[in-house]
């Protein structure tokens, strides 16, 4: 028997896929219900309208995308740098999940520019991201892995850089590629953290 939590997750995944594929303005609740394999009545039971569903879908991606990589045991050498690198990875379109996640964020930016509720939600979501990234940086500073810095300011730098590169990578700008983006972001962030190690890639051969 499928429980309510599992149904909610199925709907959220379907919403993420549908919104990324069609764009928020074209999505109707029935589109999401059909992809999730549920009735529109059940969909409305969990989410009263499109806005609530969209915001919860974004909250879901924030909580899940890249989690498996981030929560995997870090190597003994430079563990804090490894964690920060995984945050950068999860913020760039490196695979199907992160590409979909990036498209959802772009939809949110458009909504936030025109809609007060979406703007307030965006402020909250970025505050959560800033706290998460800043917390990882603060831990690295406390452990002596990073040099003295303002963790929140460096977190903002990470956010601005990954957001900017994500836009170009999402639409396949030939002037940009993933590894070059990672390298450039890491160089600029490393200058703030006093790091000299190269970007810790997920695989020893340097692949993504």
TrEMBL record:
Q: Does the keyword Nucleotidyltransferase apply?
A: no
**Record feature DNA-binding region, as residue ranges:** 28-47
Q: Which Pfam families match?
A: TetR_C_6, TetR_N
Record keywords, A-Z: DNA-binding, Repressor, Transcription, Transcription regulation
Locate the HTH tetR-type domain: which residues? 5-65
Q: Which PANTHER family match?
A: HTH-TYPE TRANSCRIPTIONAL REGULATOR BETI, HTH-TYPE TRANSCRIPTIONAL REGULATOR RUTR
Q: State what protein this is by name.
A: TetR/AcrR family transcriptional regulator
Q: Which organism is it from?
A: Paractinoplanes globisporus
């Amino acid at each position: 028997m499928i429980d309510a939590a599992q149904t909610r997750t199925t709907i959220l995944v379907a919403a993420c896929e549908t919104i990324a594929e069609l764009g928020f303005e074209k999505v109707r609740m029935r589109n999401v219900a059909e992809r999730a394999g549920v009735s529109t009545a059940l969909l409305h039971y969990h989410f009263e309208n499109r806005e609530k569903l969209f915001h919860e879908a974004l909250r879901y991606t924030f909580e899940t995308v890249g989690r498996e990589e981030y929560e995997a045991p870090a190597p003994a050498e430079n563990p804090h740098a490894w964690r920060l690198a995984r945050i950068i990875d999860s913020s760039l379109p490196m695979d199907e999940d992160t590409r979909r996640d990036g498209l959802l964020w772009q939809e949110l930016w458009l909504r936030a520019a025109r809609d007060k509720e979406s703007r307030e939600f965006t402020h909250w979501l970025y505050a959560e991201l800033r706290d998460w990234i800043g917390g990882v940086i603060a831990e690295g500073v406390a452990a002596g892995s990073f040099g003295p810095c303002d963790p929140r300011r460096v977190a903002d730098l990470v956010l601005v850089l990954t957001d900017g590169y994500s836009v170009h990578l999402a639409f396949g700008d030939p002037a940009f590629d993933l590894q070059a983006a990672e390298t450039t972001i890491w160089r600029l962030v490393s200058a703030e953290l006093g790091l000299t190690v190269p970007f810790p890639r997920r695989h020893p051969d340097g692949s993504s």
